[in-house]
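Exercise 7. Given the encoded structure of a 748-residue chain, write a plausible sequence.
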């Protein structure tokens, strides 16, 4: 094994303000780092030389502060925990939230204090890909027809969803997420067969001692309380380690009482990763995409509501002025609708109508009316046809896939997919499609009638302003569709038919079962909703407030969201049954612990390849961790003071040491296989380390991070990242491999 023993300055970054404790955090796959600003309300990502890549902050929650951050192992996201109880997965490219995970319930006062994020390799059929396998998993999957069918994606052949218009974007966190093509492509990345070979796991440690688990970026599994031996003392998660070939994670807890001399190491067995009969990555991908599509649909409906308001606002003002004009004449029995209808059918214009048309409305007002109403109606049509309906169609495709998985594995309780619950989602989406098509139909009809009505008003106004143009006006009247003009005056002048549907209020769930009851046991929710829609549009029918609520977009989207939460909760409950805490190991050094690092190294049962070292050996069979056995080893690097420690790989630990004799700080590479272990702690008195790697005399480091070579997103060498004593400078050194230890020993 080649051991790096020289440091070459790779990059250096200067920050705007001192990095808080625990920061900066460097990306595993890119030479960038993240730190907080002085108020801890913004996460700032820097390139080397201090160039700012992005600034991540809360929108509409400017007072919320950051409590923890963690990079995804592939560098795609940075998870940011906020004091409001959310973990938001932020894309560095867009600085926008791709996923929002509510970790802390609204009625809980706890906050997120620790984040961990790792990736576990899994097989396509479910379970773990063993590192001892001699056959490459990818080669083992070649020519596998059932696998190709399993991961066959039909939505990649569909046109991409269009970004929502920026002009009608509202407020809130999602208002700008779906308005850029780059953001849309980042949010809706197609699932690839290679994605099925791994599942990401995120752990969030709360101040009340609970640990929240989510998989595949944002699929929440739920929170678990660590069953401490002393129930009165709450533990808090301070460290985590995992291995890509194991479903067991190691959690490190400290007492909430402030005792900083001991750490309790607890195995966390995520057995559902091993035992799942379906590919977790595939199922989680579909569920998270479903949730993102719901967010997109909600935003599309908010945009539709804005356009609906725009289409009626100026018209309502003009009609209000017309009503006021007609009220000025006490002897006048007609209203604006009757007057317009009379003028349309007879050609006779009442004096008050003439006064309103020529003095109040005029050519200028008519143009404003046309611009606002036409723009609003076109916006409603486009938003429904181009944005809302395609998103609903994609939801149906995903639901059909999930329903197929649920039916194939029906009767198994370790998946959590219920065919009846998914069918309810399908029926709800069908109701949304029905209402969306009604909105599309009425908006197109209203737009066509409005165009004819405006043409007639324009001709009438021209005739009133200039009587000499009677012949030209008569020619224009020939091209009018009088039936549409009359239809607009009667049906659309004061109220739009879409008023029954366009509402954003999602309701409280009290009416969720009403539509299902109307449908009956063997009936269809769409048929029941169709009957209610016909009743709503029939002036002779009495419609209750509950029935009027059922046809609204907001209520149906709320019903879809609540039904979707039921499915997600069922999946989470099923997965939580496959989670258990193993037997804890107490590591008490009787002195204050200020730095901690750990690494899970795979090996044989009797393997012994692990400046107090603890080595814990345990077996994992079928996702269950066995009884751990712990040994100790002591290593002195004196004289001097150890400032930080970090594992470089399975065989090497790096230690940042201050010699405290006016000599430069140095980094020691410690080969772990050369350590001696026993139950009480071996002193390693004859242990020889490799020559230290000295730092620059004018650079005093206080913290260190180590990364192996990465080729995921860029060609990066193995690196050591160091934070200066004033916490203002972050330097990255490349690790150069020169010689093997055995060769050095032979020469000496």
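Solution.
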């Amino acid at each position: 094994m080649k051991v790096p023993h020289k440091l070459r300055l790779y990059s250096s970054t200067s920050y705007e303000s001192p990095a808080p404790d625990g920061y900066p955090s460097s990306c595993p796959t890119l030479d960038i780092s993240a730190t907080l600003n002085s108020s801890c309300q913004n996460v700032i990502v820097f390139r080397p030389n201090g160039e700012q890549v992005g600034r991540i902050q809360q929108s509409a929650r400017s007072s919320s502060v950051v409590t923890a951050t963690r990079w995804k192992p592939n560098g795609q996201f940075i998870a940011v925990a906020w004091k409001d109880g959310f973990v938001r997965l932020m894309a560095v490219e867009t600085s926008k939230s791709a996923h929002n995970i509510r970790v802390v319930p609204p009625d809980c006062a706890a906050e997120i204090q620790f984040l961990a994020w790792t990736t576990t390799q899994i097989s396509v059929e479910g379970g773990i890909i063993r590192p001892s396998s001699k056959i490459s998993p990818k080669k083992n999957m070649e020519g596998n027809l059932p696998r190709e069918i399993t991961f066959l994606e039909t939505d990649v052949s569909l046109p991409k969803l269009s970004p929502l218009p920026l002009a009608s974007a509202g407020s809130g966190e999602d208002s700008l997420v779906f308005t850029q093509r780059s953001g849309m492509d980042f949010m809706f990345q197609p699932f690839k067969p290679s994605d099925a070979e791994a599942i990401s796991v995120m752990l969030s440690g709360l101040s009340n001692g609970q640990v929240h688990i989510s998989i595949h970026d944002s699929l929440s599994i739920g929170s678990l309380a660590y069953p401490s031996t002393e129930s009165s003392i709450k533990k808090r998660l301070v460290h985590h380690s995992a291995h890509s070939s194991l479903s067991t994670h190691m959690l490190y807890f400290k007492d909430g009482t402030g005792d900083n001399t001991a750490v309790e190491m607890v195995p966390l067995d995520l057995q559902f990763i091993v035992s799942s009969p379906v590919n977790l990555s595939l199922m989680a991908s579909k569920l998270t995409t479903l949730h993102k599509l719901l967010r997109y649909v909600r935003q599309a409906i908010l945009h539709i509501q804005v356009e609906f308001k725009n289409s009626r606002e100026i018209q309502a003002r003009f009609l209000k002025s017309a009503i006021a004009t007609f009220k000025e004449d006490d002897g006048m029995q007609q209203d604006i609708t009757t007057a317009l209808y009379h003028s349309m059918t007879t050609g006779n214009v009442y004096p008050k109508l003439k006064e309103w048309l020529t003095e109040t409305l005029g050519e200028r007002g008519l143009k404003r009316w046309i611009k606002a109403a036409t723009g609003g109606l076109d916006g409603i049509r486009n938003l429904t046809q181009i944005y809302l309906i395609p998103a609903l169609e994609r939801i149906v495709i995903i639901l059909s896939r999930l329903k197929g998985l649920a039916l194939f594995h029906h009767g198994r309780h370790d998946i959590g997919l219920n065919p009846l619950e998914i069918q309810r989602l399908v029926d709800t989406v069908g109701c949304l499609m029905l209402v969306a098509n009604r909105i599309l139909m009425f908006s197109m009809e209203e737009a066509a009638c409005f165009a004819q009505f405006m043409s007639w008003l324009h001709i009438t106004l021209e005739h009133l302003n200039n009587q000499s143009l009677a012949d030209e006006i008569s020619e224009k009247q020939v091209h009018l569709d009088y039936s549409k003009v009359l239809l607009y005056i009667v049906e659309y002048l004061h109220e739009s038919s879409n008023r029954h549907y366009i509402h954003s209020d999602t309701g409280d769930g009290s009416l969720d079962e009403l539509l299902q009851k109307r449908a009956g046991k063997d009936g269809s929710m769409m048929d029941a909703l169709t009957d209610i829609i016909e009743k709503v549009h029939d002036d002779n029918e009495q419609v209750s407030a509950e029935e009027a609520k059922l046809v609204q977009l907001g209520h149906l989207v709320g019903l879809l969201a609540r039904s979707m939460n039921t499915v997600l909760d069922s999946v989470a409950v099923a997965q939580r049954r496959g989670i258990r805490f193993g037997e804890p190991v107490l590591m008490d050094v009787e002195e204050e612990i200020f730095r901690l690092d750990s690494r899970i190294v795979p090996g044989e049962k009797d393997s012994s390849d692990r400046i107090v070292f603890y080595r814990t050996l345990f077996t994992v069979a079928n996702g269950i961790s066995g009884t751990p056995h712990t040994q100790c080893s002591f290593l002195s690097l004196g004289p001097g003071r150890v400032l930080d420690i970090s594992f470089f790989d399975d065989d090497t630990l790096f230690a940042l040491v201050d010699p405290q004799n006016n000599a430069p700080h140095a980094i020691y590479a410690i080969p772990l296989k050369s350590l001696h272990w026993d139950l009480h702690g071996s002193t390693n008195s004859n242990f020889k380390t490799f020559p230290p790697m000295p730092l620059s005399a004018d650079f005093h480091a206080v913290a260190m991070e180590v990364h192996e070579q990465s080729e995921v997103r860029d060609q990066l060498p193995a690196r050591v990242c160091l934070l200066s004593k004033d916490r203002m400078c972050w330097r990255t050194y490349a690790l150069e491999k020169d010689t093997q230890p055995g060769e050095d020993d032979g020469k000496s």
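Remark. The first strand starts at residue 6 and ends at 14. Students should compare their own answers with the one above.
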